[in-house]
Structures are given as C-alpha cells and as structure tokens.
Amino acid sequence: MAKYQTDAKNDNKRDYAYNRIKEMIISNELPGGTFLIERQLCDKLGLSRTPVRSALQELINDKLAVGFPGKGIMVAEITVKDVIEVYQLREVLDVLALKLFLHKLDNKPVIDKMRSHVLSMKEMLESNNFEDMTMHDMAFHSCYLNNTGNSRLQEILRSLWNQMQRIVFSVKSMERYQETYREHQQIMDAIDENDFEKAQEMLRAHMIASKVYHIERLS
To answer: InterPro entries this protein is in (predicted)?
Structure first.
C-alpha cells in the first residue's frame, strides 16, 4: 500500500510539472527555441528531477518539445507545416464530431451552453480580453467534442488542442477574433435552424479561414 501511495504522489507531481510547463509553452512564456533546463525548472516548480524529467518526456511525446541527444530539450518551434497539418485534421475531425453530436437526441442542454459561449465571446471582444476570448472559443468546441459518444475521436482531437492553443497564442490577434465570433454565430444560427449540414459547412469554413490567417501571419 505504501508503495502505491508513493507512486501516486510521484504521478501527481509529474502531472503538476507537465501542466505548468505546458502552460508556459502555450502562453509563450517559454517561446519556441527555448532550451528547457531541468535544474532551472526544478527550482521554479519546487520539485525534484524525477517528476520534471517525466514531464519533459511527455511534452516531447505531445510534440510541444524536441529532444536533441547530447544537447538537451528545446521548446518546439511553430512552423507553417504545423499549422497546415493541425488544421487539415481539424477540418475533417471537428466536422465529424459536430455531425455525431448534432444527431444525438439529448443535445439541447449542450447546445444552450454553446450559445452561451458565443455570447460570452462577444462580451470578451468588446472588452478586448484575448485570454478569456480564447477560453470561450475552446469551450465552445469542447461542448460538441465531449458529447460525440466516440471516445477515440475525442482522444485524437484533444491531442491536437495543445498544438492548436500554441498556434493561437503565437499570433494573439483580436483582429482575427472579430471574424471568429462571426463564424461561431453562423454555426449557431444554422443549428438553431436545424440545418445540420449547413452547420457542418460553417464549421469547416471557420477552420479553413483560421488556417489561412495563421499561415499568413507565420509566413
């Protein structure tokens, strides 16, 4: 029992280290190209090397960091290729997730939540609040993603979200969010009209517009 409890504590420390370092990478506090010095991270997080080392390996697995034998671990750079690949997947998988969700019979409470997030996005635009705008944007998509009934699809899409958030924060544009709000409203309008095919097309168009914008900004 004692051994199990010790492992659980180590797992919690590893998760804490992973989440904190991931937050610093996504928010651009640790920008692409920054070397992740194990000793410095241990001091910053107040942890021993074991959980930090495990967290760094997990970040490599998630493609948020890159390991260079004999040199160390570096925060992965965001490239145009990354943007293209992430959005190519989302153009297909997000639309599939929305389709599965919309054909469920008990989805009205979740649709109401989606509508609420769109209204909050408008408020965040008016107050020029990028961080909360991003939070409601992600929460909108989480609503249908978490209610597809397909756990494997959910797992695949969640694995893209860390990279997606990095792309958004690397540009950090309220200008783009003006269009993002309008595109989300169009998706909701189609859902309210029970035109599910149109809603899927609006979502696909939103993904394509976001892809084009971020490619232009990173080129």
So the answer is: GntR_C, TF_FadR/GntR_C, Tscrpt_reg_HTH_GntR, WH-like_DNA-bd_sf, WH_DNA-bd_sf
